[in-house]
Design goal:
Layout: H1 3-20, E1 35-41, E2 54-55, E3 64-66, E4 69-71, E5 76-79, E6 82-90, E7 101-104, E8 106-108, E9 118-125, E10 132-139, E11 155-160, E12 173-178, E13 186-191, E14 205-212, E15 215-220, E16 223-228, E17 239-246, E18 248-249, E19 252-253, E20 269-281
Parallel strand pairs: 4-7
Antiparallel strand pairs: 1-20, 2-8, 3-4, 5-6, 6-7, 6-20, 8-17, 9-14, 9-20, 10-11, 10-17, 11-12, 12-13, 14-15, 15-16, 18-19
């Protein structure tokens, strides 16, 4: 962590301390008076709402390889007012499908809900364990266009959680990617903020982003953690994604930025989501 990151973390620590003393707790930012709810999922049902979510490059009929695991939407379970994206090792494969390995998934709103600009927020508990990471991010089908700019679409990582096994494990990472995923790919890390009070692997926290034509502002529990206009802010509607990924390839766990390879003996873990909300600016 460089000096500017340390200063930002210290400022967040001080702010979050004083904000935690207020009766209202952490406020949502930007001010709600300037926001209008456009879409949300409070996960109050007993199954994933197919009118709001579908598998992100995966489905319920067949497992898809994603890095060091299989993705299967059967691992996305709604119960007790929360979504749980489970990460589980199946020695005989999911429902005995003959593909042994780790199973988890990604879900998205592509074709169901997309929005240009606004404030987007999740309240969640991160999955415990090294070798894997959860994420709340945004994407658009035009992101692979290579033109040296993010104005035609970007991957916007509101947060990713790859640091469980590190000394500063209560960090997350916010990033922006443009120009596809090939040799022309460009990216920028905006911030790696600390979450000093609520343990993100045990307690709920909110993670949000305000996005307008000028750039992106990232928040945790109502506190600004970073801002960027890398590549020029996306000027096109984007859809929402929730995911858990395991480092590795060909459905075999391997060492990655999330730490050592996940072992079959590792404990199952859940990415627990209380809500996802999208607001328009008034």
């Amino acid at each position: 962590m460089n000096f500017s990151e340390l200063l930002r973390a210290a400022a967040a620590l001080i702010l979050s301390f004083f904000m935690s003393l207020t009766p209202g707790g952490f406020p949502r930012v930007p001010n709600e008076k300037n926001l209008e709810l456009a879409w949300s999922d409070e996960f109050d049902g007993d199954s994933l709402d197919a009118s709001k979510w579908k598998g992100h490059y995966c489905g319920a009929d067949e497992a898809s390889v994603r890095r060091g695991s299989y993705w299967h939407t059967g691992t996305a379970v709604v119960e007790n007012g929360c979504l749980r994206i489970k990460t589980v090792y199946y020695p005989d494969g999911f429902n005995g499908n003959g593909k042994p390995g780790w199973y988890t998934c990604g879900i998205d709103t592509n074709g169901l809900f997309e929005q240009k600009y606004g404030y987007f927020e999740i309240r969640c508990i991160l999955p415990e364990g090294a070798g894997l990471w959860s994420a709340f991010w945004m994407l658009t089908d035009s992101m692979p266009n290579v033109d040296g700019s993010g104005k035609d679409g970007a991957e916007i990582d509101i947060f990713e959680s790859p640091y469980y096994g590190e000394r500063l494990s209560r960090r997350v990472s916010s990033n922006i990617h443009i120009d596809g995923y090939g040799e022309d790919h460009k990216s920028a890390n905006v911030c790696k903020p600390l979450i000093p009070f609520n343990n993100p692997y045990k307690e709920f926290n909110t993670y949000g982003i305000a996005w307008n034509e000028d750039g992106y502002i990232f928040y945790i529990n109502g506190i600004e953690t970073g801002r960027s206009s890398f590549g020029g802010a996306s000027q096109v509607p984007e859809y929402l994604i929730l995911s858990v990924e395991i480092g590795g390839e060909n459905a075999v766990p391997g060492e990655s930025w999330a730490g050592p390879a996940l072992s079959p003996d590792s404990a199952p873990t859940d990415f627990v989501v209380d809500y996802v909300r999208a607001y328009r600016f008034k």
